[in-house]
UniProtKB/TrEMBL annotation:
Source superkingdom: Bacteria
Protein name, per record: Putative glutamate--cysteine ligase 2
Biological role: ATP-dependent carboxylate-amine ligase which exhibits weak glutamate--cysteine ligase activity.
Similarity comment text for this entry: Belongs to the glutamate--cysteine ligase type 2 family. YbdK subfamily.
One biological process term in Gene Ontology: modified amino acid biosynthetic process
EC id: 6.3.2.2
Reactions accelerated catalytically: L-cysteine + L-glutamate + ATP = gamma-L-glutamyl-L-cysteine + ADP + phosphate + H(+)
UniProt feature coiled coil, ranges: none
GO molecular function annotation: ATP binding; glutamate-cysteine ligase activity
Organism: Actinomadura rudentiformis
Stored InterPro entries: GCL_type2/YbdK_subfam, GCS2, Gln_synth/guanido_kin_cat_dom, YbdK
Keyword set, alphabetical order: ATP-binding, Ligase, Nucleotide-binding
Classification of source organism: Bacteria, Bacillati, Actinomycetota, Actinomycetes, Streptosporangiales
Length: 390
């Protein structure tokens, strides 16, 4: 995904400039009949290259990328300033992925874990083979799909100031996006089992305060010097500075079943970045909440999603999920108003809360059909946009 360079715009409240947003979605490749994941990412990418019609609105030279497992595919948007353009790119990417998958007899689903039993296979690149050897079963079982939101920042210092200030507000994003209740054919009891599996990586999760760009680099270099990570690409923080783009990259969310939910998460992340950057410029220090408390908040969001108490980002006490979501919306309302996104976010959020997150949708389908394959079958239509939302 191409994103422009650091602009040094020195944004102010009085002279607000929209930050661009880019979204990367990881999708499962499945057999359209059995619902079982299929190790065909290489074939899908070759098909897309051989068929010029399979593109993302002509905005990306390479429409798809491989991931650790051959049963998944990554698609990404161009940098977008408006939520309408972002929505078009997200839907276009999903439709292009569905078309390319059909070309090799497969389908794509926006599910963060496979409901159907699977034995994943590592993508045969040198780096991924090294990861498989170094991390053993942790790598073998990492067939999980996330949603990564990139938002432009003006400098590394601004980016780190943002990272330091958004920490308490990330767990509600996981509760909203949670879309992985099933694992190896059974209900885990979690809304986001992906978060539990992903948490096995040694560098994953919430972070301490970095204080400055230098502090961030010092922390990253110390992690690499430990020898526990293969390379900087394995800095798997819930939110990090992108290695390739001048962005903050928020990685905590499951891939969302519904494209509208992805747009909502992206809009909330942009507002988080704006809110945090303005606080930094105003000299407001970050909340010094302990990292162990943040881990508890992430676990709580992973466990119960929107159906039980979450850890409130301000009080650190249990609070109903909808109260926590409302606190998040209140916290971001000035930034959403300035960007012109408030009405859209309210509409999308209301729709998600009425319908439920992806985990609730999956369990509803399973309760009706009593077969995990039905979840995949119905998710194929939801992902490609050929089915109406419930």
């Amino acid at each position: 995904m191409y994103l422009p360079g650091y602009g040094g715009h020195n944004r102010t409240v009085a002279q607000h400039e929209l930050r661009t947003i880019g979204v990367e979605e990881e999708l499962l490749l499945v057999d359209p009949v059995s619902g079982a994941p299929q190790a065909v990412s290489g074939a899908v990418i070759r098909y897309a290259k051989d068929h010029a019609g399979v593109t993302l609105s002509g905005k990306r030279a390479e429409p798809f990328e491989t991931e650790l497992q051959r049963e998944q595919l990554e698609t990404g948007t161009a940098p977008c300033a408006s939520l309408a353009d972002l929505a078009d790119d997200i839907r276009g990417g999903r439709q292009a992925a569905a078309e390319a998958a059909r070309g090799v007899g497969a389908a794509v689903v926006a599910l963060a874990t496979s409901p159907v039993t699977v034995h994943p296979s590592i993508t045969p690149s040198l780096r991924y083979r090294r990861m498989a050897y170094a991390y053993a079963q942790t790598a073998d079982e990492q067939l999980t799909c996330g949603c990564h939101v990139h938002v432009n920042v003006d400098s590394p210092d601004e980016g780190v100031a943002v990272l330091d200030r958004i920490r308490p507000w990330l767990p509600p994003l996981l509760a909203l996006s949670a879309n992985s209740p099933f694992w190896q054919g059974r209900d885990t009891g979690y809304h986001s089992w992906r978060q539990q599996v992903w948490g096995r990586w040694p560098s994953s999760g919430p972070t301490e305060l970095f204080e400055s760009a230098k502090g961030y680099r010092t922390a990253v270099e110390a992690m690499l010097d430990s020898g526990a990570l293969l390379d900087e690409g394995m800095i798997y923080f819930d939110a990090r500075l992108s290695r390739h783009y001048p962005t903050v990259e928020v990685r905590i969310s499951d891939v969302c079943l519904h494209a509208d939910d992805t747009v909502l998460i992206a809009a909330l992340v942009r507002a988080m970045v704006d809110t945090a950057a303005q606080a930094w410029r105003a000299g407001i220090p970050p909340d010094r909440v302990r990292t162990d408390l943040l881990k508890l908040a992430v676990w709580r969001a992973s466990r119960s999603g929107l159906l039980d108490d979450l850890v409130h980002p301000v009080t650190r006490r249990p609070a109903p999920a909808q109260a926590v979501v409302q606190a998040l919306l209140d916290h971001l309302t000035p930034a959403l108003t300035a960007s012109g996104d408030l009405d859209t976010v309210r509409r999308l959020l209301r729709r998600l809360l009425e319908r439920g997150n992806g985990a609730q949708w999956q369990r509803h389908v399973y309760t009706r059909a009593r077969d995990v394959r039905a979840i995949v079958s119905e998710a194929i239509a939801q992902t490609s946009g050929t089915a109406e939302e419930p």
